[in-house]
Amino acid sequence: MVGYAFMGAAHSQGWRTAGRVFDLPLRPAMAAVCGRDGSAVRAAADRLGWAAAETDWRTLIRRDDVQLVDICTPGDSHAEIAIAALDAGKHVLCEKPLANSVEEAEAMAAAARRARARGQLAMVGFNYRRVPAMALARQMVADGRLGTVRHVRVTYLQDWLVDPDFPLTWRLDRAQAGSGALGDLGAHIVDLAQYVAGEPVVGVSAMTETFVRERPLLTGASAGLSAAGGAGKGPVTVDDAAVFTARLASGALASFEATRFAAGRKNALRLELNGEKGSLAFDLERLNELSFHDHTEPAASSGFRRILVTEGDHPYLEAWWPPGHGLGYEHTFVHQARDLVHAIATGTEPAPSFADGLQVQRVLAAVEESAEKNSAYTPIPALEAQD
Amino acid sequence: MVGYAFMGAAHSQGWRTAGRVFDLPLRPAMAAVCGRDGSAVRAAADRLGWAAAETDWRTLIRRDDVQLVDICTPGDSHAEIAIAALDAGKHVLCEKPLANSVEEAEAMAAAARRARARGQLAMVGFNYRRVPAMALARQMVADGRLGTVRHVRVTYLQDWLVDPDFPLTWRLDRAQAGSGALGDLGAHIVDLAQYVAGEPVVGVSAMTETFVRERPLLTGASAGLSAAGGAGKGPVTVDDAAVFTARLASGALASFEATRFAAGRKNALRLELNGEKGSLAFDLERLNELSFHDHTEPAASSGFRRILVTEGDHPYLEAWWPPGHGLGYEHTFVHQARDLVHAIATGTEPAPSFADGLQVQRVLAAVEESAEKNSAYTPIPALEAQD
Amino acid sequence: MVGYAFMGAAHSQGWRTAGRVFDLPLRPAMAAVCGRDGSAVRAAADRLGWAAAETDWRTLIRRDDVQLVDICTPGDSHAEIAIAALDAGKHVLCEKPLANSVEEAEAMAAAARRARARGQLAMVGFNYRRVPAMALARQMVADGRLGTVRHVRVTYLQDWLVDPDFPLTWRLDRAQAGSGALGDLGAHIVDLAQYVAGEPVVGVSAMTETFVRERPLLTGASAGLSAAGGAGKGPVTVDDAAVFTARLASGALASFEATRFAAGRKNALRLELNGEKGSLAFDLERLNELSFHDHTEPAASSGFRRILVTEGDHPYLEAWWPPGHGLGYEHTFVHQARDLVHAIATGTEPAPSFADGLQVQRVLAAVEESAEKNSAYTPIPALEAQD
Amino acid sequence: MVGYAFMGAAHSQGWRTAGRVFDLPLRPAMAAVCGRDGSAVRAAADRLGWAAAETDWRTLIRRDDVQLVDICTPGDSHAEIAIAALDAGKHVLCEKPLANSVEEAEAMAAAARRARARGQLAMVGFNYRRVPAMALARQMVADGRLGTVRHVRVTYLQDWLVDPDFPLTWRLDRAQAGSGALGDLGAHIVDLAQYVAGEPVVGVSAMTETFVRERPLLTGASAGLSAAGGAGKGPVTVDDAAVFTARLASGALASFEATRFAAGRKNALRLELNGEKGSLAFDLERLNELSFHDHTEPAASSGFRRILVTEGDHPYLEAWWPPGHGLGYEHTFVHQARDLVHAIATGTEPAPSFADGLQVQRVLAAVEESAEKNSAYTPIPALEAQD
């Protein structure tokens, strides 16, 4: 694994747990974790349960005891590491968004195609597909419970930037993060909407905004910015929020909103689909629940029902607890590890693939383009057949 | 009152009840109701409590015992009746949307200005401003409880057109209704968002869609289409749904969605505002509740609180029941009647005025224009100073 | 109508509105209202829409233009007025609880039986049976949607006595009110539970409590206690709260709680039934909703569904607004008036009858007896066959 | 650890994870797991991460590399194992309920007192105290946010016995399980109510019921009942449901309900407290949320607020994910492990202690006694001072 901050801790919990809960065809061994600061990465290895620590990812990907490289770094290093790892004959799991640009994502998808031919697999970490309620939603749409989908509406609302004195972190720096709420939150909801609806976004019309354009510089070693004093300010170079409307391939209308300025909304990834035969609604703040309205029932006794997605025949639930004993956020990483191990053991293509990640990247790029062009409707190029 | 269908029944309940519940400076007398079918309008007068029935609105507005004309007809007749009534020296209450076009709305606003100079008042029936929770929301924003508003998101979701066999009614005919979900539902949410936020929409980017382009013709006298058989179909000439993003005067980002295709959503007018100091959320399907998050409190004990808007010091509640004994939909018409009577008694301008209705009409026109122009951002002309 | 305070205002709204909204076989005329204070009752008549005012209920019940007497006074006068009115050949609607003691209630039920033989009808005002969601719940249980009922749990939580400085009103005086939360709130939930479950409570085990035993005396004419200063205190002679468990005739277990000390709960009448085939849940603070779980469905897609009880084929909804346009508290009085008018027009026994009111009174008496006897299980005598 | 079924798996997840997420003063090593079936326990050790497997708990508690014995067996073996382990100089964590009888619990509490004097600690596994929302609730009550508590109402509703064909498992056998819903679910809610309220139950009045008195015998080796055919039936010897009212030491009224017959309720442990200054409400099916009403605020802007208990300064949250990224059921076992390790490292008494477990056992015994004695109010003996 490369990187051991928030995402690294979450992935580690996934790797430690998957084989203890699920029957896996292969048991993952946590060989080594990599970071630039030697003592910090050794402490992280000890804490998180990795057998060894490395300070150079190039060394890591040459290790013989490493068959899979899990990339948990900021987006600006994804392409370089992932392509090198794939070319070195390793399977790769890469955090989302796949890259900071369409060009990088295309190169990564190409590398994944080459690797696939040699037997290596590449997967992108859109972990919310592994919330059981989202996997169930996908199944229900695929089973026709919604009929033709008319509307998709998705928001991802957080509030950690409401305070104008929150400092500049790497997530607010375009060079490192690529974009702001759009790439961080918008990437999740574009992938999730397409996954659940089972069809791609084909065009968007967008507005973006940076509400607070300057913020205090970070102080302290934790940010690697020891020269910066708290008194100074620096520019925010990414979006604070993005709102966009879209059309899906079927003709459905969609709306998206990603923001870090929704006071009181902590992790409100909300998704609703309305179809001819039914509707689904979900809120990540209540991730064990899926709301379903069956429009084929008599109106007098129908309504949105709250399915507690904790039954033994729900996706991923065969290995967990009795009904009503809910799961949490990091279970998505356990499920991600499980699914990737199965894909590797069986040699099947994992989903979401790098091609899926590239498609999301194209949507994000179209959002930025539309926002720059007076919100003009901007089509998304379809993926090439070989994708 | 002109018209006695759904809106006519609701307005009648308002006029019958306002003086029985509130202390009014004037007691409204229900002089006459008007409709084209003589026996039907007489039955309606008897049922709804009007002293007389008329079959020609021109006669109605000449009656000496009529000081106020309440217009509850489809939008295509609003301008003619309202302007004539104002010019005849009557006060006017006109259902929303104010008109079927900006041109008509401008003429109506001009007539209202002329009438105002003579002492007559004109009000447009955006009744949802009179939901106590919405009046409270407006107060809280005005009191600064939200600080600078960053986001407004509003939907108005219904589902009565999901079935493709639902017949063509006047609401699906552009000539009578002006537009579809946009004018019917979108007008409400544009007005309500501007009212609660306390600032106008200054530009929009929009998509509209007609999912079902042909529907069975209405049969039966009730539709005035006796020649049409149920076997035939006719074209739907209005939108089924409209989604649009917007900017408000302060720079806040907004998103709007109006649709009649959201299976399971019966009357889901949902409004959320996020500001620097707090957030508000509302759902018309639970109209006695307002959710409020106070972002100035410590995070550890804060969260969206559900205010039951039924306290004696909440707007309009001084006259109703003890806390927790909720109100319903038609109470908005009782409150509308109350407020208009107070305005007439005191000679003060009622709100929303015809100028407010015109402004909403301009937003709706910009939505249609943007939808036709590839979703390009379309500014809303500001109201002239004399408005 | 006798009495014109809170209940009188609510009943008046019912009488004014029923014939304007529903097709009634008879149109009620609001002949006269009665109260002891002449000028106050005349003002109330004018405000509420009654043609005349009386100051002695004995005079009222002798009027030839009065066929129905609606009793909205405190419980200590119910028996005398109701029996006299029935014996005078009038139909009677009496507010709940039917009386302040089982003895009074028995006399009233006997009077109702005598009157019934002569063609007069008597009804008790358990208005919550007329919440559409509750009528729907009753239908669903009767239709077997729940199968054998195992559990009933009902609470009625209010909070207007939490403040120890809230003054002594008539509702806190045993002589006038009979009991406290038990008779006021408990009567409602006992009736409602039995109505929805379709079977009687057969025994109870209870605890009651008076948390604040002294309160400030009322000042001012409104209380008829002008001699009392705010400085003095007087004893609270009724219960503040009652909790009891019960068995129903079928063997189901039930729990009840009535209190005026549940801070933040304004009108939380919550009812849940669990049966072999399904469950129902309701909260009066969201009175347009009924939650239903269908246990015969596959667990993977089942859950409590929120039925918006606003469809045209829901009870009472044929006359109101489109789906999703909710009703409020006082609609229960409109429905009560409608149902009583139908009963009178057709000569059929209205429900709840005085016998139903007597049965509730026996449950309340058993609760008090159990609370006095160390919570010992106390059976409820069955109603005699002629009831 | 003794036992490796549902509870064993949950505890193992706790032990594996605690030191990887929290900074612990000691790092737990998972030395050995014990079960009667040799091959099954070896498979469990491999799966769950235990270094060794034992088939006799007496051997296990003699191992030098074992300092702590975690007991995850059915209740009938708790006393014997726990007392032996404590007497052998081991710390003990014992699943709830502490024992199957008051006598056993008293012996265990006495053993814990003796062990405490020698430096060994004993803790009982009421894991729901470790739901962050419950720990926060306890803090808020202790901080006086509720003032004097007037009402406590708690239910624990499940539905896995609704189907009369669900077979007889050990949980339905009095000899193994001690009691039914009462000991399994009721023990949790009695402990939790006392913990959050900060005061003991002092007396109860109860009803219990067994709705389905015979069930199919288990077949198959998994039940250790290979001779039994599916055609036969056996008696259910425990309660299916228990409802009881109670008084707390402060005079507050409480109501409790534990059942396995609430169709559609999967794990509905619901707790509400109403105090003079505020109220709290919780539902285990939404375990990341705590509802709080602050009654000291103006009524016009107050209401139950939904606190997402995922902030960094909430109990246990310092080590987990960003706000809004919720936890699940098994996190309570991670927290339990963390707290016990801290207690051992610092030599402080863990909570809940065996004395706490004994007190709960006395409440459960009083519930059974009251149910047998016609629901008569039954006081709970206070714990002796040395407890």
Automatic annotation (TrEMBL), chains A, B, C, D:
Gene3D superfamilies, per the entry: Dihydrodipicolinate Reductase, domain 2 (3.30.360.10), NAD(P)-binding Rossmann-like Domain (3.40.50.720)
Domain Gfo/Idh/MocA-like oxidoreductase N-terminal as annotated: residue spans: 1-118
Domain GFO/IDH/MocA-like oxidoreductase: start-end pairs: 136-280
PANTHER family: BCDNA.GH03377 (PTHR43818:SF11)
Pfam families with a match to the protein in the record: GFO_IDH_MocA, GFO_IDH_MocA_C3
Species: Streptomyces monticola
Keywords per UniProt: Oxidoreductase
Protein name: Gfo/Idh/MocA family protein
Residues annotated as transmembrane: none
Source taxon at top rank: Bacteria
